[in-house]
Amino acid sequence: MTQRASAADVERVFREEYGRAVAVLTRVFGDLDVAEEAVQDAFAAALRTWPGTGVPPAPAGWLITTARNRTIDRLRREASRQDRHAQAALLHVQDEPPEEGLVRDERLRLLFTCCHPALGMSARVALTLRLLGGLTTAELARAFLVPEPTMAQRIVRAKAKIRDARIPYRVPAEADLPERLSGVLAVVYLVFTEGHTASEGERLVREDLCAEAIRLGRLLARLMPDEPEVLGLLALMLLGESRRPARLGPNGELVLLAEQDRGRWDRALIAEGQSLVRRCLRRDRPGPYQLQAAINAVHSDAPTAEATDWRQIVLLYDQLLALSPTPVVALNRAVAVAEVDGPAVALEQVDELDLPRYHLFHAIRADLLRRLGRMAEAAAAYETAAEYTANDTERALLRRRLAEL
Description:
By secondary structure, this protein is mainly alpha-helical. 71% of the residues lie in helices and 1% in strands.
């Protein structure tokens, strides 16, 4: 007896297969809009068909074949009416979609297309989540706290830029890969960091963004297993995600790392992340994501906050600072220095940094001042930190710290 499919089953397949279907059909038709419309049409057909027939054994193949055939029929009808866009898409039509083993390469091409340096960073993030993650325009608008028409316009402009600038649908040549790969990794990590600690709003975490970033990280790791920075980024995200269950208290309050119940950390994610870090170490080609992952691995090794190997963390930050000499890296290093050499030494280093509008600069400075007994200055720093964060959960923690003084 056929197992009927519910709307939830179709939605699950949509999330899992949308990116690969769009990627393949972009190659087939040479047009992102045509590919997206084709996939959406195929999913509409699935919603009508699968409740009676069940989910097919190879849903991605069903969707791609259905989308291709229905779209070619539509384009032929429109081309007969002198629709130049339809004629151009028909002229580009490639042979049959590739076998499953090659679909992964199509998604990699699409990822590099979405993350082309000719596009602004916000457009890269939006396109990546739209075309590879299957997020709707409404979901993207909610995730990045902009009106839906604004997000729709951002996506339309990005697609037009790809078309008008003739941005190629391909993985860069080997000589160009390191430069382009860094941009792709930056987009994926930006998606994760926005999900891990939302820049604005009431929620601290956006689980959907974290999940999508990790999914893209896994995809990259499968497609480029010899790139240590790809493995480093995936390890970094997994280790960060492992602590999510302990980051919020029973009333939704933010719980900092030193105060978290480590028994609630996800040990499976920690084991996977640490295994990736060890693979990176064996490659001996350190990069910023690998070093950040190694720092997180040291934290995850400690059974208690007091048992953390802070000297090892300072050494790793020294290497990271040599590769990425930014004020934010120096600020994070100062946090570790405070545990090794004391808050006075760390405060001297923090006060040399120029991060006047970064809320964590003021929050870290406030904590150091509090530990030194300089309560009035600490209170002023907590106030400034609370002013500069737009996340309500972070602001509530800073207010609690201020009240405790």
